[in-house]
Write a structure and sequence with these properties.
heterodimer; A: alpha+beta; 4-stranded antiparallel β-sheet; 11% strand; B: alpha+beta; 2 domains; 16-stranded mixed β-sheet; 15 helices; 23% helix; 22% strand
């Protein structure tokens, strides 16, 4: 993050985006709606606005409006504008849950679009990869065999039988195929290049933890699982590896975007909120500490 | 509108210094970023075989906010969120609480309703086109005012009854629709990681005429390059149709151009009011013709036999001698509760009876239209495929965990007096697929050959092989799969040409989930067409735990229960972790068509309602089911003379 050119960092500042977009929206709005840009007490219905009204009418009725009808449309538009301005002046929007949520939505969409607009550079993704190494680390892989002794079939004998077989194997007197000394099972007799999660999925976590610590190249155990008792022979253990950005760029970008969406939304809210002094009254004030109510919940969406 | 304006504004602001993102989805032909696999020879002779060595678990039927009803119910999660959750990540549910699976699933199909796909996000956003319609405006305002559930019910009803405003339809060919479909594909492409997690492209075709559920989920084998060349088939005319035959035509056309592969999975026959598995054409009432029979058999190779809206294996009325038949029943009427159920409808609604009737139709037409395998899935409308009893995130967003869901009403139609409570929603299920690897192609191929089974939630492992030469000793060999594939066919397969004097024998094995409840018993359900041309069924207990002796009726006595409802706990002091046996049909007649499938029954465990009652300290309503006997159903193996 620190090595980024200052300009790039500046350009990725979400609040800046937000403000610039806000300014651009404002400019665009007035460019597209010059009719509304007049003095406060003036309502100008521009030529393009009239055209839009006529076009809308034509879409419904499949013909252009008559002069009479057009006048009706314009009158209606003016009425709407008058009501709208008066209603805002009277504050009628403030206690209307539908209008409030709609406006909040519009603000949230802006922050989402800010996220979508940002295209991360390799440097940004490389930094993200390093910061969240645990997300991208390719897991260690184990290749092992196991012999299963069913506690359901053998009861306490399962443990004894497993120990007995292990002693034979240690002494070099074991059967040529030790797996055949075990009980029939749907558990895999061997797994090749299995991740810890795959071992957990098949055997449960107690077994997975135990084979993770088992020595390589020899039979060991007994190890317990939810099914019974096992001897295991780890034949190969590959340490986890960190892939390079080139190898997994789409995945890193996916994760970066997912985080970014959350962060930008939270950050924008926090910054906007910091403009306000928020005071919670009554018994609930205690939820926000005694004095600094203004920071209440800021930054957490 | 705001998004469009913003694109311009963002362009104005950033255009000079930063490249604009391309929102357009560009499909890739290859999947990127799969971890490189070394091509070493396996050490052990037991691995690297051509047959599947483990079942992959997933959900073929999950909705997100892109489905209009899900969105109206309050779902805000998108397909991307859904894939993240299924991969095992922490996701914030629409109700604001954090959610995570106990362990990741292997695959997921986001199957949003094809009609009006993407309509909801635009309704929610108040797009001008939507707001221009009085009904659209009304729904929008209801949702913003916090009455989404009412809006959802109105939307579903309007859709079912054909009164959905024409002006609001998001139909194929419109930009809004196209955008939603492209985003669905893009999400699947982004999260599909061959070998690690499969994100299928799919959708749900929602034929619901008169409120009768004939829904199908369509699953693509292909990547986005092919799927993006088409748009999903819908129900509303003129582009769509409510007749399954027309969906099959769409599927056939897709196979021609662009030359991909799709399959369709029906569900909730229990809400079809006798229309899912009919013996005559369900729309016209005319007798089936050969074409209908053959086409259905070609495209519909699986059935979703269990899900949140009730279990679909069988019904006590149809299987009076089956003491496990009364399970998570939803048999009050059709989907929108506009027509109550009558007993004569039941025979055309459930999987087991359909498998039986399929034999009859096959003897008449030469093809069995109901020769389907089984899977389970969730049909959750939350973006969260969370179907564990102690981690159940409901079917719809208002049913996400809270003290209220034990008390709340889900469906209430005063006209028909049908009322369904939230507690009746079933925390079920998942699809298990015996595939050679975790990729779209391998999983899809396994679905196509029906090497699948349904579970009501627990990830138990079930093997089932049929053949003529299995003997008792085969159940004692350490590598069961080697024997099974070597001497027989797996679930979903076929037997024929019975050797003289031989009966089919089945190698069957079931193992509990590593963290899960023990098993009570393994059963084989046989259905057949007798000498008089009538269909019959028989449930055999073939393996069970403990030293229980079958009674005079041949049934193994009930296992009992260790469930402590108040504390929402149980112990594995009863049952067995694993059951393996070889079973030979004692009443085989080589001249009679038959099918055999396995049902695995777990010991009783606390139902999600028990976990909720404990966690939230709420008193359940009278009659609330508090325990569950989870189960698995395999695809059948068919015998054809």
């Amino acid at each position: 993050m620190t090595n980024r050119p200052a300009l790039a960092a500046w350009l990725r500042e979400p609040l800046l985006h937000f403000l610039l977009i806000g300014a651009a929206l404002f400019a665009l709005y007035h460019y597209l709606n010059p009719g509304n840009a007049g003095a406060p007490r003036e309502i100008v219905v521009s030529e393009s606005q009239v055209e839009a009204l006529a076009e809308n009418f034509a879409k419904t009725w499949m013909r252009p409006p008559t002069a009479q009808e057009l006048k009706g449309l314009i009158d209606d538009y003016v009425a709407e504008e008058v009501y709208y301005r008066e209603a805002i002046a009277m504050g009628l929007d403030r206690d209307d849950i539908v209008i409030r949520r709609r406006l909040r939505q519009k603000m949230e969409f802006i922050s989402e679009d800010v996220t979508a607009a940002a295209q991360p550079t390799d440097a940004v993704l490389q930094a993200y990869l390093e910061q969240h190494a645990e997300k991208f680390l390719q897991p260690p892989r184990l290749t092992f065999q196991q012999v299963f002794f069913s506690t359901d079939r053998r009861g306490d004998g399962a443990m004894r039988d497993a120990e007995k077989l292990l002693a034979q194997l240690d002494a070099g007197r074991g059967p040529p195929n030790p797996i055949e000394a075990g009980d029939p099972t749907l558990l895999p007799p061997a797994m090749e290049s299995a991740t810890p999660q795959e071992i957990v999925n098949s055997f449960g976590s107690d077994f997975a933890d135990a084979v993770e610590r088992a020595p390589v190249g020899q039979w060991s155990g007994p190890v317990r699982s939810g099914f019974g008792v096992h001897l295991v022979r780890v034949d190969r253990r590959d340490a986890g590896a960190m892939p390079t950005l080139t190898e997994i760029r789409p995945i890193v970008q996916r994760e970066w975007e997912s985080d970014q969406r959350r962060e930008v939304t939270a950050e924008l809210l926090a910054k906007l909120r910091s403009k306000y002094d928020v005071r919670v009254e009554g018994p609930a004030a205690g939820l926000y500490g005694s004095a600094a109510a203004g920071r209440a919940g800021g930054g957490v969406p | 509108m705001i998004h469009r304006v913003l694109a311009v504004a963002v362009g104005l602001v950033l255009g000079a210094t930063a490249a604009l993102p391309s929102h357009a989805y560009e499909p890739t032909t290859s999947n990127t970023a799969a971890p490189a696999q070394s091509s070493k020879v396996p050490y052990s002779p037991y691995v690297g075989r051509a047959y599947p060595t483990r079942p992959y678990f997933g959900d073929t039927h999950l909705h997100t906010a892109f489905s209009m009803d899900a969105g109206a119910f309050g779902a805000r999660l998108t397909p991307r969120d859904a894939y993240r959750f299924a991969r095992g990540e922490v996701v914030t549910a629409s109700s604001g609480q954090q959610a995570r699976l106990s362990r990741p699933l292997d695959f997921l199909v986001v199957a949003d309703h094809s009609d009006n796909m993407g309509f909801f996000p635009d309704l929610f956003a108040g797009k001008p086109d939507v707001m221009a319609d009085p009904t659209g405006k009304k729904w929008h305002d209801l949702i913003l005012a916090g009455q989404g559930a009412q809006a959802a019910m109105e939307i579903i009803r309007a859709f079912s009854q054909g009164t959905f405003p024409k002006a609001l339809m998001y139909a194929p060919g419109t930009p809004g629709y196209r955008g939603a479909w492209m985003e669905t594909i893009a999400a699947a492409e982004q999260y599909n990681q061959p070998g690690a997690f499969t994100a299928f492209i799919g959708y749900e075709w929602t034929s619901n005429t008169g409120g009768n559920n004939l829904h199908r989920n369509v699953i693509f084998r292909d990547n986005g390059d092919k799927a993006s060349q088409v748009e999903p088939f819908t129900v509303y005319p003129p582009a769509g149709s409510d007749k399954p035959q027309d969906l099959w035509k769409w599927m056939a056309a897709y196979e021609q151009q662009p030359g991909g592969q799709v399959l369709a999975i029906a569900h909730n026959g229990n809400l079809s009011n006798g229309r899912m598995f009919t013996m005559v054409e369900s729309f016209t009432g005319k007798p089936f013709d050969r074409d209908y029979i053959e086409t259905r058999a070609k495209w519909e190779r699986l059935y979703e036999a269990t899900q949140t809206k009730g279990d679909g294996e069988t019904h006590p009325f149809l299987s009076p001698n089956d003491e496990f038949a009364n399970f998570e029943r939803w048999d009050f009427g059709n989907l929108d509760a506009s027509v109550p159920k009558t007993k004569d409808m039941l025979q055309y609604e459930y999987a087991r009876m359909a498998l039986r009737n399929g034999l009859k139709l096959e003897s008449e037409f030469g093809t069995n239209p109901y020769k389907f395998g089984m899977i389970g899935s969730s049909d959750a409308h939350t973006g969260l495929t969370a179907m564990e009893e102690n981690n159940f995130f409901g079917k719809t967003t208002p049913q996400e965990p809270s003290p209220h869901r034990m008390m709340a009403t889900f469906v209430d139609n005063p006209k028909t007096r049908i009322k369904v409570m939230d507690w009746q929603v079933s925390s079920s299920g998942y699809a298990a697929v015996w595939a050679t690897e975790n990729t779209r192609e391998a999983l899809w191929d396994a679905m196509q050959r029906k090497e699948t089974y349904a579970t009501t939630g627990p990830r138990m492992v079930v093997r089932f092989f049929g053949g003529w030469d299995f003997d008792k000793g085969d159940a004692l060999k350490p590598d069961l799969a080697l024997t099974g594939y070597g001497k027989g066919v797996p679930m979903g397969g076929d037997l024929s040409r019975a050797p003289a004097g031989k009966s089919p024998a089945f190698l069957v094995a079931a193992m509990k989930a590593p963290i899960g409840a023990n098993l009570d018993r393994v059963q084989i359900v046989k259905g057949w067409l007798d000498a008089r041309g009538e269909t019959r069924e028989q449930v055999y207990d073939v393996a069970w735990s403990g030293g229980r002796k079958p009674g005079k009726d041949g049934k193994v006595p009930a296992i009992g229960s260790t469930v402590d409802v108040v504390n929402a706990s149980y112990t594995n002091s009863i049952g067995a972790p694993e059951l393996i046996t070889v079973w030979k049909d004692p009443a085989f007649d080589a001249k009679q068509r038959a099918f055999y499938y396995v049902r695995v029954i777990e010991i009783p465990t606390p139902r999600w309602t028990a976990y909720d009652a404990k966690r939230f300290g709420v008193q359940p309503l009278p009659g609330t089911q508090m325990t569950v006997t989870e189960r698995a159903y395999t695809s059948p193996i068919w015998y054809t003379p």
